[in-house]
């Protein structure tokens, strides 16, 4: 990126702005409502909410400590 001239950087920024202008924009209140509904719909399968079963937890501490060979 350092080897680009100021003109090249300006063209890249212009092209990015052209892409962004075409994006459909939504109101934040609508997005938040839809996001909350999606999160609540998947809460039963979400390990961050319900946790990991003890027998499937790869990070549980093993009894007996470490062994160095």
From TrEMBL:
Q: Which SUPFAM superfamilies match?
A: Transducin (heterotrimeric G protein), gamma chain
Top-level taxonomic group: Eukaryota
Pfam families documented for this protein = G-gamma (PF00631)
| Membrane topology (UniProt) | Lipid-anchor
Main localisation, per the record? membrane
Q: Is tRNA processing included in the keywords of this UniProt record?
A: no
Which GO cellular component terms are attached? Answer: heterotrimeric G-protein complex
Q: Where in the cell is it found?
A: Cell membrane
> One MF term in GO for this entry?
G-protein beta-subunit binding
Is Lipoprotein given among the entry's keywords? yes
The segment(s) forming the G protein gamma domain are: 3-69
Give the record's GO biological process terms: G protein-coupled receptor signaling pathway
What are the protein's UniProt keywords? Cell membrane, Lipoprotein, Membrane, Transducer
- What family, per the record? Belongs to the G protein gamma family.
Q: How does it assemble?
A: G proteins are composed of 3 units; alpha, beta and gamma.
Described by its record, this protein's role is as follows: Guanine nucleotide-binding proteins (G proteins) are involved as a modulator or transducer in various transmembrane signaling systems. The beta and gamma chains are required for the GTPase activity, for replacement of GDP by GTP, and for G protein-effector interaction.
Q: What is the name of this protein?
A: Guanine nucleotide-binding protein subunit gamma
Q: Which organism is it from?
A: Oncorhynchus tshawytscha (Chinook salmon)
Recorded name of the encoding gene: LOC121839041
């Amino acid at each position: 990126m350092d080897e680009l001239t100021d003109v090249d950087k300006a063209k890249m920024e212009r092209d990015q702005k052209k892409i962004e202008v075409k994006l459909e924009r939504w109101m934040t209140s609508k997005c938040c409502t839809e996001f909350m509904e999606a999160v609540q719909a998947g809460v039963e399968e979400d390990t961050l909410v319900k946790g990991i079963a003890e027998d499937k937890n790869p990070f549980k501490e093993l009894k007996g400590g470490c062994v160095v060979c």
